[in-house]
Specification:
The structure is a homotetramer of 365-residue chains. The first copy, chain A, has seven helices and 19 strands. Chain A is globular, with a radius of gyration of 21 Å. In chain A, 22% of the residues lie in helices and 22% in strands. At the A-B interface, strand 1, helix 2, helix 5, strand 12 and helix 6 of A face strand 1, helix 2, helix 5, strand 12 and helix 6 of B. Chains A, B, C, D: GO terms for molecular function: chorismate synthase activity; FMN binding.
Chain lengths: 365, 365, 365, 365
């Protein structure tokens, strides 16, 4: 809705820079009576946490979430229960090395927002990317961990489906494999390919892009809205807000441009249980902006990390030409850690639409 | 942002169904003192208007825009000047043939929103797709015609770059060709290919998807916002709200997933005029959600028209299985008429961010 | 929420000037399945309509509401049923006499928004007050007529309780009297007093202020929100948006400043039916921003009509001092016709909070 | 705009309960380049701080504000400069005595939001009023301290003008006296009257209401908006969101109901400097929702503190009738500490409208 807030009834406002004392979010509009533990939140935080493998940044942050408001402790002393008031969550920045960035305080790193921040604001927190650091996404994951609990039965999962030119074999898709490798890969056969490929890129100080797929199951049919605030529109918007994302698609996505109406439309039948079902899911679970009840399928493309060791031509804030290399501890493929972030954004979007639909139509409980 | 409104300072609310008496929009927050003529609006309306070639629907609508509020007539009696109050625009529906749709009033057309509307609302205006008809986009084009005038110097143009499997040759790109063929094709060599291809599809009663590219030039560097309400996010969101759109990308888009950081980042230099410039535009004119000053480049994929003459399996509102064909007058490639709509959505997004940036930073005039 | 829209889930956007071709509103987010007739809307419109007695403006407008979208006709051909899509309502301006205003096109009428519009926008529709004409409130009444149907059982009524220095005797309060006099007075004894008082003011070409009280019954306990978007806050906000309103109070209002905690707080007991009830309603039906289930009671003060026949000192757009009298056909007490407008605003606020509460808590159906 | 956020371009989101670890706010949309020190913020915090005299609660909180994001330290090491990104401010709760409230955990205190919270949410943080504690207003004062710096030259001041039946003598108004007494009284002669009156009320364990007046000077003419989002509407809305406020008025307010158009309208002349000026300010600095450039004058009524020592009849969460007295450390006149809170809310509203006007019209710098 506004610069650092998204959602209408389930609203998330994030704040914080990479090298300040802390970052966090305020989740407003969360229904009362939702029960969770800090350990549950931490489970999701740990998936996004840096320093977990050689394929992600070696910065080490514990990413411990403190819940400062909006909850009451249950009798067991461990379970927290939401009260319906805003939930403030805070994550301290513990492993900051501002000196790494000192020499580029006035230089514009290619592919980064350095230049555009300076043009817009005339001032910029250069330390670690400041507000535009991917560290901001920790707050999204924290918010998403609550959003997952808003819609009964909904399950939101993500997987990496492409790194550079290497795509998974979709026939091998196995959700249970996602946790068995450092890539969130659902295809075990791609893992050694990516390991070798990415090790090579990392050694060169280079980086590479990726594509992530998010699948949400048990999304109630009927949530969404027809024209603006379409469910797919809001998913696209929220995924596009993740750092480095350059493209988003739903269901067949760009592939839909290449096929005929006969191939693309999903036919329907009545099942033995008397309920309607679809014979395919080209639509990615959304028709006319409204959920069909099938799995919601979204993909997004993440560009290669802009921080690379190769020397690049740029300019500085004084208008002088410079050549610069971005030191620091960076992800060779920032797309990997984008998987839990994408899940969080889809979970928040679905929670918001669920509450809005319940509001307007009174259909859901 | 809300169900039928988009934008924050330059806000557009649309209303109306395909077969009601009229449809329209309210443009709120438009700056005062903007001068325009009805003929200028009509120019953009005519580009989207049905019945212009054999490749689009044969429904005939004049799409005459009436401006009901928010303007004063200038001394010349022809120029209208905005006063800063909401501008209500109305377009009458003149060529409705509700009887065409009678027999599918209770049947769910595959690929359409019929089923999801019924699940959500329990009631549905089945005539011509009702609210989810692409006729709603006429109101967007009307709003966009004003949005184009908000940012001094900005030019927003669109072109069709792919129909089905046939893509343009980008080396042939010539903006002046776009108006010379019924496809908004910037490549004259693709025109006969598409003509034959699409004629064949039309004769079969089938349909096909397409990809549209929108380019906005002279977008002031610095507009946008860093985290949520990114310029690319809002462009993606607003393009995704167009009927039948299944994917959106900015700059390199999904292609960015396949390349390295060295290949993707845009280097900078200082020109002879002392001003910074970029050596490439992989970013599509946006870094960290903020405009770089380069052309903003967005593409979106439109699925094939779901209304086809081939018999398809579906169900009806009574839970019975049916086979149905969608009669009526449909676009074989709805992507064609999406070109001016995409332009309008990008123009509105840029106008909105321009006003917001001017508000927060006071930088622009 | 934004300049010409109010409400979050039940959103009303109004547009139109006094002397343009028409004015109207778009009601977005209205639940589907609400049934109404045009005659029902007209009932509320007629209460606000000008020309009904010698105590209101003699301008004659039929104020016929056309519903352009968002509804389907029921089988009876008369009842309209909302479909959940935006409802566009239009009211034509039929009795415009722009020439009445010609000579004050560049003069700033004291108490009017002429000067401030010119400062803000640099352009102003001077005809009949343009956008700031009380004619805009016709659109609110139209929207309110739908809002009244959103919350089951809710009844919103208003009455005039004070004109100038003459207040009603609250002991005489009888809702059934409100329709029996041209003042919406609930106290029959005040009617002759006001008649004489207001006739005198009208003959002098003067005007006078008033206070209106709105009472909403059967408001579900629990709607509202604790801190911002309080039910009383949103009622105050929406009443304050009515032309010429200078003060708003809830329950005891300003009177609460003069009494002790013992006198002001409403005690509770359990009724014979096992349900809680309050022994008094000093709070006006709202505690901590949330409805108690008691009647919601709000009052608002309307300043005297600024258009008077007495010559007043002012300036014009060229910075010259002028003396001016406001001709035209004006209400000697604009507070009278504000009664149905106040009802409409309270009805819309309650409908919105009802849907929002249903969304966040899932409590209501 | 939404439950715990207010403002459109200058947006404040508050969070936190009375007895949690902390409370705070996120200020989003603040312009970049605003310079402030923590000492400046603390100046305003201290005015609202409890424990300052025998006439306010004896709870002791230092109310130290930590700024966690959105700023860079200037070279002097003390001045902070806003960067345009969201500013998170946190205030720890240090003097909590939850045991004071233990016995009323399930009882509904008359005049409090206990009952309505339980109805709405089914769960309630009973400790010290939870979210509805006036402690939440500390976050508003912190946000307001930044808002004061957004509009060049604007000065927002407040004063207590009435406690119970004792009003100040407006002829004695002297802003320099406001800081010389524990009441924010602008009339030194009222101070001994209020001291005696309030001491008596405090000794009885009772409480009393009050009226506060806020005056904003140097508000740029032209900010505001004509119909919804009027400047007076948004001031009324934001003042009404303060705990215990039951009425709001602008300029003549309810007094405008009692006078004629001749008496109420403010005439204009041209000054020797060639600039327009008003001969009076009955309008309270706002015409048609837009600032005239005169001082903006708003008043609001605060009800007596509901927490009193007198035994009152009520019920508990089990539906049983109880008699209860509210122990704890309470303000006998919560209106006193509402003065800096009212100032903060008006300052935030003006800052927001300033940015919005600059956005839409480009008039301001």
């Amino acid at each position: 809705m506004s610069h650092n807030t998204f959602g209408q009834l389930f609203r998330v406002t994030t704040w914080g820079e990479s090298h300040g004392p802390a970052l966090g979010c305020v989740v407003d509009g969360c229904p009362p009576g939702i029960r969770f533990t800090l350990a549950e939140i931490q489970h999701w935080m740990d998936l996004r946490k840096p320093g977990q493998s050689s394929f992600v940044t070696q910065r080490r942050e514990d990413d411990i979430v403190k819940v400062l408001s909006g909850v009451m402790a249950d009798a067991d002393g461990e379970t927290l229960v939401t009260t319906g008031t805003p939930i403030s969550m805070l994550i301290e920045n513990t492993d900051q090395r501002s000196k790494d960035y000192g020499e580029i305080a006035r230089q514009y790193r290619p592919g980064h927002a350095d230049y555009t921040y300076d043009v817009k604001y005339g001032i910029r927190d250069y330390r670690g990317g400041g507000r535009s650091s991917a560290r901001e996404t920790a707050a999204r994951v924290a918010a998403g961990s609550l959003a997952r609990k808003v819609v009964p039965g909904v399950v939101v999962r993500g997987a990496l489906v492409q790194i550079g030119i290497h795509k998974i074999n979709r026939d091998n898709w196995d959700w249970s494999e996602v946790g068995n490798n450092p890539f969130f890969a659902p295809d075990p056969e791609i893992v050694p390919v990516w390991e070798e490929y990415l090790s090579d890129i990392r050694k060169k100080g280079s980086s590479i892009g990726a594509v992530i797929e998010i699948v949400a199951e048990n999304v109630p049919a009927g949530i969404g809205a027809p024209i603006y605030a379409k469910l797919d529109q809001d998913i696209a918007s929220n995924l596009m807000s993740i750092n480095a994302v350059k493209g988003v698609e739903i269901g067949n996505g760009f592939g839909a441009a290449e096929i005929t109406g006969e191939e693309n439309a999903d036919e329907m039948r009545i099942g033995n249980d008397g309920k309607p079902y679809f014979l395919s899911n080209h639509a990615g679970g959304i028709l006319g902006g409204i959920a069909t009840g099938q799995p919601v399928v979204a993909r997004f493309a993440v560009k290669p990390t802009s921080s690379i060791l190769t020397e690049r031509r740029s300019i500085d804030a004084d208008g002088k030409e410079v050549e610069l290399r971005t030191k620091g501890r960076h992800d060779p493929c920032v797309g990997i850690r984008a998987v839990p972030v994408g899940e969080a954004m889809v979970a928040c979007t679905i929670a918001d639409h669920y509450l809005r639909d319940r509001g307007q139509t009174g259909r859901l409980k």
